[in-house]
Design brief:
Blueprint lengths: L1 H11 L8 H133 L6 H25 L1
Helix pairs in contact: 2-3
């Protein structure tokens, strides 16, 4: 096809780069009409759309920058609140530990006091039981001793007053001997 055009141009004896005069004139007028239409009608609309897009992009960038600044301030506030909450938690933990230590000390003191009361009550009960057992033992030993003495003598030794005095002196002598034996150890 190009070869045909070149051949056709050679026959007309014109350069293939320069069109004939009437075609050049019609092409120039058509170009001027299209150029004028684009310049008057389309170019302002295109510029308007491009300007709106530029403003929207710049506005979006400004909004994004404002949002970023706001997000940064919110982040700083959050970090400050978090640090304050951690400080408060540490303070509360310290107070709880101190209260726990105080409660433990109070409970130990109360336990010690109760233990001492229980030990004292136990000693008092043991002493009362020892005295009761000693008294019962004295009576039983006295009765057995008088019965044995009565059998040995062959007479009844039923006088309680005299019997109690004799038994008490005998048992007191035994208690003194036991006390001296313990002291010598």
């Amino acid at each position: 096809m190009i070869a045909n055009l070149v051949q056709l141009a050679a026959e007309e004896e014109q350069s293939p780069l320069i069109p004939p005069g009437p075609e050049l004139l019609v092409g120039t007028i058509a170009f001027a009409i299209v150029f004028f239409f684009f310049w008057k009608k389309l170019l302002p609309n295109i510029n308007k759309v491009l300007e709106e897009r530029r403003e929207a992009i710049e506005g979006g960038i400004e909004k994004a920058e404002a949002a970023q600044v706001e997000a940064q301030s919110v982040l700083e506030q959050y970090k400050a609140q978090l640090a304050e909450a951690r400080h408060e938690a540490a303070r509360l933990r310290q107070e709880a530990q101190e209260q726990g230590a105080t409660l433990i000390a109070e409970m130990r003191a109360e336990g010690q006091r109760q233990r001492e009361e229980i030990v004292a009550a136990g000693h008092a009960q043991i002493e009362a039981d020892r005295k009761a057992a000693s008294s019962a033992l004295r009576q039983d030993v006295g009765k057995l001793a008088t019965d044995l003495a009565g059998k040995l003598v062959g007479e009844s030794l039923e006088d309680h007053a005299r019997q109690s005095r004799v038994i008490d002196r005998f048992l007191d002598g035994l208690d003194e001997a036991a006390t001296k034996a313990e002291a010598s150890r």
